[in-house]
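New to this. Please check both lines:
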Amino acid sequence: MTSAIKVQDISVNYDPRVALSSVSLLIGAGEIVGLVGPNGCGKSTLIRAITRVVPLSSGKITLLGEDVSDLSQRQLARLVAVVPQNPNVPDNFRSFDLVMLGRTPHLGLLQSESERDLQAVHNAMIATDTWHLADRLLGEISGGERQRVVISRALAQETPVLLLDEPTAHLDIGQQAATMELLESASSERSLTVLVAMHDLTLAARYCQRLVMLSQGRLIAEGRPEEVLREELLADVYTSRIDVFSHPYNGLPVVTSSGRTEGRQYGNAQDPAETARKADQGQDLHPHRR
């Protein structure tokens, strides 16, 4: 497998808190990998570390064989595009102008946009169903529409790697599926490598080829959705009763929560490394729940 993203034993500290601890991960070119886990587990930090927004305390990250620490900002922006969780975009910007910013890494100093750049923006906005918003100010459109415009900017950047942090958070159920189908198509047609942080485990199972689960800054499970989304592991990580069913049409996992159980402590009270060890060995994480 040709690696597009290689994370080698990285740690990130927000003194005095450890945000990521000894995380290693290999993502192949053209893969769609879902990054899952509870709030505060390190998903956003991992995405920020890949793009050098936060510094590594130790370890190494490479993109398409290039050490990210050796790349200029322009070189990095030609390799990876990012859709952040809470994008800071000015209300008085036209949607078209924001998407055009995705072409910045491809332009020289004081260089005007070419027909190629205009076409890239048009294609990205058509793909995300935002072309009709091209002349609208960002402050005049809904949160879901704004999110799709931000995704358009990332697609217009035309990088081989795309990182997304909760891209479906502000979208309705139809747009969530449409967005994930768009990423699926882009990955297939352009060999685009996608790492996407998600809270919706059922949606992640439907569209991601592999899932990577973090808990308290540690990678505790990775594999096919049905290998990672197991009731005992999820109950331990999310400190909640979790039910996992097979979808009646595609057989993929469907995940629901029955809520927290009073008076019972689940896995976040444990060392996540111990949770991962038990999960790897197929041990019952909560034998008392029989």
Notes: The longest helix spans residues 173-190. Residues 99 and 202 are 30 Å apart (CA to CA). Confidence is low (pLDDT under 50) at residues 262-269, 282-290. DSSP finds ten helices and twelve strands in the chain.
